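Ticket #4471: structure export looks truncated?
Reporter: QA, pipeline team
Priority: medium

Steps to reproduce: submit the single chain below to the structure queue and open the exported record.
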Amino acid sequence: MRSHRLLLVLLLLFVWISTVAAKTNYWYSYIPKQVFATQVFPITIFADTDDSAHPPAFQFDSQSPIQPLDTHALKGTNGGNTFYTFYFKAQNSDITIPELTITDGNETVRLRSRYLPVKTLNSSAHKTFCGLIATSCKIITSQVSEFDAQNNLVSLTIKATEANPKEIHTLGSIESGIEKLTRKGSESIIEYYFVLPSSEKSVTSSYYNTLQNRFVSKTISVDYKDKPVAAQENLNPKDSSFDKLKKYGLTLLAFFFLWMFWKRKEIFFLVLLTICILILLTLFAPHEKICIQEGAPLYILPTETSTTGGQVDRELTTDILKQRGNYYKIEYDHHIIGWIKDEDTCKD
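Actual output as written to the record:
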């Protein structure tokens, strides 16, 4: 009789364990087998249900020095299945993904810690390697301007996926840095700048593509003269060739419409003449002036984290080339271009 009771208890225990196991709806669907030092990589948790009323809460072991870049998981769905992805950054030695506790309205699941070997990327054969490791990288915008009499400032906006932007550097640059970094899920938008001697006409950098398992090279022009419109429109008060062409063309059109109005006395030509004159007044309008205090720092870019490229050694009044927020773009002595904070302007 006692043996029957023991058998019944074991049977009930087995059924209970099987039931609990059946309710375990979370497990790792992807963990890389190996990563490179400084690489940003994903780990993905699979969930076979999607209970929006009781979304799961994820908590990695807080005692571990290894933590995700963002505590909020990137959620994705495929059919009736749901995936939650976290991004980690590898260190210079092997790491351990900490134990993960998942809690929802039905259960608490613990996923054990996982050991992950870290390999050093062999970049010795790629002397142009900029330190970036990503699944994709695209240069959205590039702008070249005069930094000082001997150097040019190159500003880039880069979009990269699963990237380590803080490792980016430009070989041969006098100065470089990240002015703004925005990370959303797997995507990073990087505003990066570097200063090169003006004798350089182009620069080639390569990044390591983890999907293609190879180095990918990108070449950009850093010649200020190759980009007169983009550079001078934003930085230099002098006319570019394109601006001069616009002014000459509009002036000729204005004289043509004036002659046609005098010949035919039609109001249509008078309207066109008026439009041309208004546009010309805009193009020939002088820049607004600004007074700058002595000792004001001259920033490379209009951001709070920007480094300074020098100081204004005296109080001066100069043209405002552009305004962004509380920053004014000016041209200082010897064609030095920079940004001045509003707080450093003269206060009457």
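Status: closed, not a bug. The export was complete when the record was re-opened. Leaving a note from the reviewer for reference: The chain has a mean pLDDT of 81.
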